[in-house]
Amino acid sequence: MARKIQSEKTKANILTVSEKLFIEKGYEKTTTQEIVDITGLSKGTVFHHFKSKEDILLAVLALHLDSMMQELDSCLASMDGLTAKEKLMRIFGEYDTMADSEKENLLFKMAIATQSPHIIVADMKKWHTEVAPIVAELIREGIADGSITTDFPDECAQLFVLLCTIWTDPVTLKCDAQAMYRRLQFIQHTMRVLGVDIVSDAFIESGMKFIESFMLDKSLD
Q1: CATH at 15
Q2: 54 with 16: CB under 8 angstroms?
Q3: DSSP string, the chain
Q4: Domain of 26, in residue numbers
Q5: What is the pLDDT tens value at each position of the chain, 221 positions in all?
Q6: Are 148 and 185 part of one and the same domain?
Q7: Domain end (from 34, 50, 66)
Q8: Contact 23, 15 (CB under 8 A)
Q9: Is the pTM of this model over 0.70?
Q10: Looking at the structure, do residues 126 and 199 belong to the same domain, yes or no?
Q11: Domain check: are 2 and 96 in the same one?
């Protein structure tokens, strides 16, 4: 047990140091030797836990998503008595509580996006396989309780996640604030037409405030 705990601490140390270096220097300019030197570990120990630098990067991205999934679970646990539509609207309106972790995720992706686009694709795939099924299940729950009307719960969930993670990601597809606002409005309109009316005006306003603050703090031009 003690050995397992020490192993987890070692992995956490490697990931913490690596993430900091990736953000500060960029993924390509960070060397494995720097990770070794700053962690104080041997190269053999680092590569015992991770096969490559890219493997470390994927693990950091997974941590960001895991953190958001925990927040999602916490939100769902506090929503007894709500319809599925109300649950979805509340989940995707939780910018005040979820902004910090998502902002960190955007910052991290910004540091690597232009250098490792295939890593971004891997991150998006995780959203598709882990988040979309939860949204789909809630949509099916909404069909059952009458708050949502669609014949395509899985497809609507996949489309919604795709649009929210790629099309409105200022790192992956750069755009100005006006274009972002139009995109959010289009998502609202599209989901409403599909019978999954879960994007409120408040969601758009909160989303814009979050995106604009991020773009102001960390220029994406």
Answers
A1: 1.10.10.60
A2: no
A3: -HHHHHHHHHHHHHHHHHHHHHHHH-TTT--HHHHHHHHT--HHHHHHH-SSHHHHHHHHHHHHHHHHHHHHHHHHHT-TT--HHHHHHHHTT-HHHHHHHHHHHHHHHHHHTTT-HHHHHHHHHHIIIIIHHHHHHHHHHHHHHTS---S-HHHHHHHHHHIIIIIT-TTTS---HHHHHHHHHHHHHHHHHTT-----HHHHHHHHHHHHHHHHHS---
A4: 1-50
A5: 667 678 889 999 999 999 888 877 777 788 999 999 999 999 999 999 999 988 898 888 788 778 778 877 888 888 889 999 999 998 877 544 444 555 555 555 555 555 566 666 777 787 888 889 999 999 999 999 999 999 999 999 999 999 987 888 776 677 788 888 999 999 999 999 999 999 988 888 877 876 776 565 554 44
A6: yes
A7: 50
A8: no
A9: yes
A10: yes
A11: no
